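User: Can you predict the 3D structure for this chain?
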Amino acid sequence: MEPPGAANHKTAFGARFLDLFREQEWHYAPDLRATVPGSPGFAHHPLGRRIVYGITSLIIGLTCGFSNALLSANLPYLRGALGLETYEIAWLPTVYAIMNCLGGGLLFKYRQQFGARSFAITFLLLQLVVIGAHLLVRELGSAIMVRAASGLSATALTTLCIYYMLQAFPLQHRPRAIVLGVSIPQLGIPLARLLPLDALALNKWEGLYLLEFGLSALCLACVLSFRLPPSIKQRVFEYRDFVSMAFYSLAVACFGAAIGMGPYLWWWDRDWIGWSLAACLLLFAISMILEARRRSPLIDIRWLTGADVVRLAIVLIMTRMVLSEQATGAIGFLRLFGLVNENFFDLSLVIAICAFAGPVAAAIVFKPDRIPAMVMAALLLVATGERG
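Assistant: Here is the predicted structure, written as structure tokens:
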């Protein structure tokens, strides 16, 4: 028999646990409430609270980008230590990218109905459990599960990083806060190359997963301790969302697996790569047809195919291609000569410093009408560096 009061204690514990997922009550002016469901409102915070929000955004953003960057930056060394083939270790970043895309489609409506806080806590807890299990069973399958959980949680953390940074700035400086919030997760790869391999490669790279576990735990502690202002919630999920999401998920999985593994297994040597690319076109088409006929779609096709969004997508893709040489091409070239992270530490340090200075400078000078000039100036700087 349970001792007297045990049932009440369990009920109280369950209530406190569920309260962690709920948003805090907040009293502020009606004009500062969020107008978009799922987004937090704004408040006139004191300076101390703004600093805490800024530090929390920095921790969340770095955790979001750093965990995957650690693996991506050290993928060749991890493969050798675990005795895996190149195509086997390539599944890790591939699965991360697939789940990150799926998380983006799911998060939009999830945070409208339940709030971004609930999504972040749920998948951070899942990530901690999976990483803890992987430390006990270090196999490729468990490593893939860690990447999948990280990809999902990174989706929520990216959004939370922006939300916390928005609270750190006065209302009139929201555009500058968005610039910083978007930029912080991008700092992961430059920072990851500054860590010595000896610390990460401890006991077959157990050090890497211990560091990722610690960062996730720190991030969870910040989310639990420092709550955002509440957001407007409304019931948005429909049964057709899950039908569309099923086709969309299969399409993303087929496309991601084919694109991610094609360069390693080679496109013409595996029949499943071609079949996956063909299947993803059909699955994407079915998903888009289902979404195009809905009043409240999970994926807004009309908005995504607008001229402004398409033009923005083209600019972002071209810019990403231009910048990929700095972070991937140059480092990959040095690795062909047998150099490891410690050998090009100075180069990684310069890249990391500039990666920090760039968003800060952009936030200082940012104004909406200056965006074209800022993009052109950035491209001229990249061209100057390539010429040099």
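The chain has 17 helices and no strands. Residues 43 and 272 are 53 Å apart (CA to CA).
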